[in-house]
Amino acid sequence: MVTLADADESDAGIASAINNAIARVAGLIGISAIGALVASTLPGDTFAANSQSVDAFHEAIVICAVLVASGGVVAGLWIENPRRRVKAEECPAGQFVGSPRPAVAAMSLPAPPR
């Protein structure tokens, strides 16, 4: 699960685009599969406003909730966020990553006119 972390800085954009595309396609396939599964349990007209349609909707919501919860558990257990080593003293904004130097060099201002 370190695919994006393994990408070089020059390939970060394409790696992010591929990750987003896969996530969106997987979401569409998942929603379609859940809809088809639940609709297959309905007798007759699947769009009828009756108690069977409401029960099927509740069934689909429970399936989605279980999938979201299991995805959270899997992510919590196996997704790692490796820290990268950064040389803060060479970074222009080094104070943001731990270097205690000021962002702007101190300079003396001329005295205001009297």
Give the secondary structure arrangement, pairings included.
Layout: H1 3-6, H2 12-39, H3 51-78
Helix pairs in contact: 2-3
Descriptive account of the structure:
There is one protein chain. This protein has 114 residues and is mainly alpha-helical. It has one domain. Helices cover 53% and strands 0% of the residues. It has 3 helices and no strands.
Strand content: under 5%
Distance between the termini: 66 Å
Give the helix tally: 3
Number of domains: 1
How would the global form be characterised? Answer: elongated
Radius of gyration: 27 Å
What is the helix fraction of residues, given as a range?
A: 40-55%
By helix and strand content, what is the structural category? mainly alpha
Give me the strand/helix succession: HHH
Oligomerization status of the protein chains: single chain
Low-confidence parts = none
The whole-number mean of residue pLDDT values reads: 77
The beta-strand count equals 0
Question: How would you briefly describe this protein structure?
Answer:
The chain has one domain. About 55% of the residues lie in helices and about 0% in strands.
